[in-house]
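ok, trying the design again with the full structure, not the truncated one.
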């Protein structure tokens, strides 16, 4: 009997289950962690900080209210777009739909990152010709009149790219001030001084302008940027009630007036040349000039007491430059020589109650050698060098020669795990006002001065992080951080003028340390439509020397967002933040902050509405407490942003020319440092 067989042209068929392939949106290595933003994120984001917020990257802490981008430990993060550094203002000019990927770098060895410890590099398409223009405006309500906006335009032709930025920031509010309750322990007895804020007026206009020209090829990068900024604080006045104990229970009126005008112009260059035989050179020059006019007048209706006037005019000249020579020995080893130098000149003239002319010069220089080892799963980057500083205050001269060193090591066994350790030994220099010999009067009982003999302080930073990203739905970073500054500058209070007053000065005393441990975790659900992020941290502060204090504080922030068609809904909450001041040993506390936001984006338009602190009807937003043997105070600050307020934002972007391949964003001029004592 023959066995039954199927016909040759008969085929058996089975029903296959649906196969879903999920793209990998993040990966890590020893050098970089890469994230791919989804189409929903790019479409709904208004600018670069908004993009980073919605991506919920575990190595970043993005405040949706202030737009600040830091590490979870609070360290600064430099933002780059296609390897060109941008300012916080100019991050608003990014066309987010052009973003290809976002790279996070800890202690990058690439010379284009300018030696910063933490960097975000946003990779975008490039224009072959044409560009885009972006117009953005933010209007605040329930906080006085506040309006911020910008016009950003990019145009490319062949190898040249031109960027233009113009911004504005107008403010007119009557909620801005402080109340101070202080105790002066004088030889003749203890005096309580109570200064209660009642009203204020703040009118301010800021207008930054920047233009940049870039020529970029595979082997050459030539970038020149010119910036100009105007900051007119037309009016900054506070009025309130003043009383003393012991007294005859008389309440006096006081007024503080401190308008100021600031002008600044800057030029900066960014030059990169790739040479034969794996050599390359990078050069970063920068020149800035600023003129500052500051007016300070404190007056009361106390009989026979004259107003205290401290007007100041200042010219500031800043010149700095750095150069790097890099040799790529092979795929594994890289060596680098770094040279840097610069000079700061501050010419300050004080008029009024305490007339005085001060001439500061600060010249610095340094050199270092660096070596980087990069093998699969492990990398090491180390550098060491020496820096010198020459400081002159009128006829007082101070110089210091000191070593510095950095070490970064990373281990990444696979694309989902990374362990990083970073060590730094460096020097901190007091600012110019802390070294000023001028003595100025602050109120009826308090004077302040600097110390030209103030020395530099050494500090050590140790950071350890572990990044874990097993899948698109979950990613986290745990962190431990230590910062210690030794023989640092502290503010101390002494008896002055035969016991009639208290004077604040500075001197080197004791050490200050901060320990921090925490985690930043992100969970994404519903096909990335729903995102949660939590960041708890524990901070320990310790101070020795003339200021002997220690405390441990807990903080936490929560963020969530949901996408629905063209809409996005988000919520944010941050607990009160408690911190010890490194210089005074005092404690600063601010209120918790929370926000609800809804956004809509379609085509060229992006519109958002946020409601901040919507359950709060008080204006006090922070406290500061200081206790010393001779002087104690409690300060309460008031701000319209502590109260419930709303912000409406609208952005319109239109493009022209050939499809974008890549784009860089211009850097706006930042504020220039000042030596004026406040």
């Amino acid at each position: 009997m023959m066995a039954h067989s199927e016909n040759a042209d008969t085929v058996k068929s089975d029903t296959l289950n649906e196969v879903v392939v999920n793209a990998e949106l993040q990966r890590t290595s020893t050098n970089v962690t890469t994230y791919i933003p989804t189409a929903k994120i790019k479409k709904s984001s208004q600018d670069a900080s908004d993009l980073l917020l919605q991506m919920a990257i575990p190595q970043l802490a993005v405040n949706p209210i202030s737009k600040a981008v830091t590490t979870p430990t609070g360290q600064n993060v430099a933002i780059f777009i296609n390897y060109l550094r941008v300012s916080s203002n100019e991050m608003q000019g990014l066309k987010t739909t052009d973003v290809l990927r976002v790279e996070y770098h800890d202690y990058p060895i690439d010379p284009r990152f300018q030696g910063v410890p933490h960097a975000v590099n946003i990779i975008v398409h490039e224009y072959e010709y044409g560009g885009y223009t972006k117009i953005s405006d933010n209007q605040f309500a329930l906080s006085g009149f506040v309006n911020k906006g910008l016009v950003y335009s990019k145009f490319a032709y062949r190898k040249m790219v031109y960027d233009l930025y113009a911004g504005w920031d107008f403010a007119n509010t009557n909620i801005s001030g402080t109340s101070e309750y202080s105790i002066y322990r004088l030889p003749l007895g203890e005096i309580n001084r109570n200064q209660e804020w009642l009203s204020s007026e703040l009118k301010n206009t800021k207008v930054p302008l920047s233009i940049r020209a870039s020529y970029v090829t595979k082997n050459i990068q030539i970038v020149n940027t010119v910036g100009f900024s105007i900051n007119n604080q037309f009016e900054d006045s506070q009025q309130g009630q003043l009383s003393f104990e012991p007294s005859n229970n008389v309440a006096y009126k006081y007024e503080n007036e401190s308008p100021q005008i600031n002008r600044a112009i800057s030029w900066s260059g960014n030059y990169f040349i790739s040479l034969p035989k794996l050599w390359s050179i990078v050069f970063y020059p920068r020149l800035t000039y600023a003129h500052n006019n500051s007016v300070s007048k404190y007056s009361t209706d106390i009989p026979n007491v004259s107003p205290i006037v401290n007007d100041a005019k200042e010219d500031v000249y800043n010149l700095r430059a750095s150069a790097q020579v890099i040799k790529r020995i092979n795929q594994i080893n890289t060596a680098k020589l770094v040279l840097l130098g610069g000079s700061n000149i501050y010419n300050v003239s004080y008029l009024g109650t305490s007339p005085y002319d001060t001439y500061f010069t600060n010249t610095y220089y340094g050199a270092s050698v660096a070596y980087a080892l990069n093998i699969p799963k492990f990398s090491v980057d180390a550098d060491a060098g020496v820096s010198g500083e020459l400081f002159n205050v009128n006829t007082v001269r101070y110089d210091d020669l000191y070593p510095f060193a950095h070490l970064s090591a990373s281990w990444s066994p696979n694309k989902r795990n990374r362990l990083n350790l970073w060590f730094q030994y460096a020097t901190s220099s007091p600012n110019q006002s802390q070294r000023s010999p001028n003595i100025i009067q602050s109120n009826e009982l308090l004077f302040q001065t600097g110390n030209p003999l103030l020395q530099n302080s050494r500090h050590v930073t140790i950071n350890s992080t572990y990044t874990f990203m097993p899948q698109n739905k979950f990613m986290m970073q745990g962190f431990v951080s230590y910062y210690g500054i030794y023989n640092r500058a502290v503010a101390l209070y002494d008896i002055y003028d035969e016991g009639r007053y208290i004077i604040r000065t500075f001197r080197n005393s004791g050490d200050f340390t901060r320990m921090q441990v925490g985690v930043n975790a992100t969970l994404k659900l519903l096909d990335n439509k729903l995102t949660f992020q939590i960041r708890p941290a524990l901070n320990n502060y310790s101070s020795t020397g003339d200021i002997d204090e220690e405390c441990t504080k807990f903080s936490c922030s929560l963020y969530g967002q949901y996408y629905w068609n063209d809409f996005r809904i988000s919520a944010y909450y941050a607990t009160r933040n408690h911190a010890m001041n490194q210089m005074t040993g005092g404690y600063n506390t601010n209120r918790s902050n929370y926000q609800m936001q809804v956004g809509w984006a379609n085509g060229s338009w992006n519109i958002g509405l946020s409601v901040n602190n919507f359950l709060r009807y008080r204006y006090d937003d922070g406290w500061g407490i200081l206790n010393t043997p001779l002087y104690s105070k409690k300060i309460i600050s008031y701000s319209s942003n502590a109260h419930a307020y709303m912000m409406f934002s609208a952005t319109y972007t239109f493009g022209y020319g050939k499809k974008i391949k890549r784009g860089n964003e211009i850097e706006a001029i930042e504020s220039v440092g000042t030596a004026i004592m406040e």
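Keeping the full-length input from now on. The chain has one domain: 26-661.
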